[in-house]
């Protein structure tokens, strides 16, 4: 495509050559851990897919307690390609969370969060939290038995916080219990509030990454580095990987369409051995560990407080890890990272198997 | 005493004025937004009125569910024929519990909590027993109330 007049028109108004030079000057370090750089790009790609499929589904979904469940069944049974896009949105969400966790633990273990990139970690961590809330609010929209139980537990758990718990619970539920008000509220979170926040934070996250450049692991900093241009070398690699991801995603979408459970009934007990989405399993198993009463205090409150404290510590790791901030090796925080990872993996596996 | 110079500059004065105005404006806006976002919460019912004949021919060792606000209550006939009404919501994480007639126990599938047939928490994470309601019968009405609540039926 060559449109000299358009090019000229733009050239007169904007510094196109300057932008080209800027794009050409972007260099990416090349080393034996550089595969981790691509996990962020994969997540970005998956986010784009989620946005697109989500917009399509919003044309047909009805966020009302009487019609929500039925409208999803109609999407997958009656609409052209409805089964495909609903399944794609489901599997896109699953893979997004998988790659967010891979991206997170890669960043953690390579200590890419260290000074001066603390805010990159902070924005990324908030994005992970938002994505998990995306998942929770998204699967309540099905309004089936499992989602109903999961949202009761999750919002009830938030209610176990001392002092502010009641407010959070009321804000999330929109009423005393999980009702049609909760469904509408979660719909608003899922299609309006969270997407806006996500767009802003992704923008900020990427802007910060551009500002700082790619982090090089501590162990490789002394070595002589090779750098390759982002355009076109790394960009083409990104595209190639995205193509592979698309293949995996579409394969899962076509061969493993997600089920739709029985419509939620506030009077019925949840199905036997009910389990939340896999990224909540470690929380579920943690909750099961605590007895009802510990030293005369409510075990649930203690469990929620401990989990919150552990997540808060995780969030603040860049500010606690003084050694890596000074550019020294920091084996203590490697071990902390490994412990977090092992706990997450073990408890998730226990949740699957129990 | 008249000062020769003002203690605050014109700029400080204006910054404080406009800054204060902005803070006042945004806190008012925020307050109004939050007020709107937070729902006016309903209240858990003090009692519910049911039709007595719906519950008379219940078999021993089984439950019948009735709506209790946005959740569920159980009308429960024990194996020995004694009657009990209780709230069918787990005291751990608010999942609905289920009755297992074979074990004569209540069971919560969310985190494997168990309650005995009197609603007492016996196994797993639940911290408290199930809430027991008071049953009164008035003509063809069955009134199920929270403990210690005075039931006043509307005169009709």
Helix-strand category of chain A: mainly alpha
What does the radius of gyration of chain A come to?
Answer: 23 Å
Shape of chain B: elongated
Average pLDDT, all residues of chain A: 92
Tell me the radius of gyration of chain B: 28 Å
Mean pLDDT of chain B: 87
Number of strands of chain B: 10
At the fourth level of CATH, the homologous superfamily of the domain at 34-272 in chain A is Cytochrome Bc1 Complex, Chain C
Features:
heterodimer, A: 354 residues, mainly alpha, Cytochrome Bc1 Complex, Chain C, two-stranded antiparallel sheet, 15 helices, B: 156 residues, alpha+beta, Rieske Iron-sulfur Protein, 6-stranded antiparallel β-sheet, 1 helix, 18% helix
What's the layout of helices and strands?
The complex is a heterodimer of chains A (354) and B (156).
Chain A: H1 4-13, H2 16-25, E1 27-30, H3 37-58, H4 68-77, H5 82-109, H6 118-140, H7 145-158, H8 165-173, H9 180-212, E2 226-229, H10 230-255, H11 281-289, E3 293-294, E4 297-298, H12 299-315, H13 317-320, H14 322-325, H15 331-353
Antiparallel strand pairs in A: 1-2, 3-4
Helix pairs in contact in A: 3-5, 3-10, 4-5, 5-6, 5-10, 6-7, 6-9, 7-8, 11-15
Chain B: H1 10-37, E1 47-51, E2 62-68, E3 71-77, E4 83-87, E5 98-100, E6 105-108, E7 113-115, E8 121-123, E9 132-138, E10 141-145
Antiparallel strand pairs in B: 1-10, 2-3, 3-4, 4-9, 5-6, 6-7, 7-8, 9-10
